[in-house]
Hints:
Blueprint: H1 5-17, H2 22-33, H3 39-46, H4 52-91, H5 110-124, E1 128-129, E2 135-137, H6 138-141, H7 152-156, E3 160-163, E4 166-168, H8 174-182, E5 187-196, E6 208-218, H9 223-238, E7 244-249, E8 254-263, E9 280-289, H10 291-296, E10 305-312, H11 313-320, H12 334-337
Parallel strand pairs: 1-5
Antiparallel strand pairs: 2-4, 3-4, 5-6, 6-10, 7-8, 8-9, 9-10
Helix pairs in contact: 1-4, 2-4, 5-11
Bound molecules: 3,4-dihydroxyphenylalanine (DAH).
3,4-dihydroxyphenylalanine binds next to strand 8, strand 9 and strand 10.
Amino acid sequence: MSTNFDGLQAQFENEVASVADAESLRALRDRWLGRKAGLVTDVRKQMGSIPAGDRAAFGKAFNALQQVVETGLERVGQELSQRENSALIERETLDVTLPGRDVTMGHEHPVTILRRKIEDIFVRMGYSVEDGPEIETTFFNFDALNIPEGHPARESQDTMYVSEDLALRSQTSTVQIHAMQRRTPPLRVIAPGRVFRRDTPDATHNPMFFQVEGLNVGEGITLADLRGTCEEFVRQLFGAEAPVRFRASYFPFVEPGCEFDYQCFVCKGDGCRVCKGSGWIEMGGAGMVHPQVLRTAGIDPELFSGFAFGFGIDRLAARQFDLDDIRLLYSNDLRFLEQF
Ligand code: DAH
C-alpha cells in the first residue's frame, strides 16, 4: 500500500486546526472533499489500481480517512457558527444603564398657536369651529357673498382660479354660506383657515395666509353685539382692556360694513412704535350680514339678523410676536421656528 494514510490524516488535522472563518472552512472542504481534485477524492480514485488482495485494507483505511475529514469539517463548522452566535449576542446586548438619547420635540407653528388661542376664546363664548373647502366654486367665493360677476370686488381680490368656476378661496367668508346652509339660527361659528390670493410676497403679503371668519345669526342681533363680541375677544386675546373702534367701510356682504381697530395697549392710544403713532391697531373687517346674503343662504332676513367679521391671523401673529416680515412664518427656517 503506497498511500500514506497516517500522513494524510495528520496533515488534515493540522490544516483544520488553523481554520478561522467560514471562508477558510469552505476552502479546506474543497481541498479535501472537492469532487474533482479533492485529496480524499484522489485517494478514492486510486482504489481501482489496488491489487485485489490489498483492496479490503485500503478500503478500510480510506473509510477511516474520509470519516476523519468529514467529522473534522463538521466539528469546526459547528464551532464557527457557535462563535458567530455568541459574537452576535454580545453585539446586541442592551445596556440599560446607559443614559437615554435626547428626543427633539417639535412644537406648534406660531400661526397654529394663535389660531388655537382664538378658537378657545370663541368656543368659550359659545361659538363652534367650522371648516370649509379651500377650493371653492365662484358661487361660494363671490355670488353668495353678494359679489356678482362684474363687481369690482371680484377683481380687487386677485383670485387664483383652478378652472373657470373653481378657485382657491380668497376669503374665509365662504364658510359663512356653508354654515348657514348647514344649520338653522341661532348659529354662532368661527372658521379659521387658509386663503389664497395672487399677491406678490413682501413683508406684509404672502399668496397664502390665514384668516378667521366669525358669524353670529339669530333673532335681534345688532351692531352692539358685534362691538361687545370684538371687545371681549380683544380683551381675552391680549389679556388687557382695549377699546375697539369701528370705521365705516364697504364689504359687499355686510351692511353696514366697517373695519375695526383696537386701541394700542402699549401706549393706550397716545401713539407709539407698535401702533405706528396712531394709537390704534387695525384688526379686520366686520358688519351686519347683508339681507341678500342671508336670503341666498336660505335664512329669512325678516326674522333673523346677524353680524360677521374676518381678520388675518398672520398679521396678528406678526404683531403678537413682533415680526417685521410675514414671510418668516412660511420660510420653514428652524432657527426662526424654534423660538416659539
Ligand atoms: N372677507 C374680507 C376680506 O377678506 C374680510 C371681512 C370683512 C370678513 C367684513 C367679514 C366681514 O366677515 O363682515 O377682506
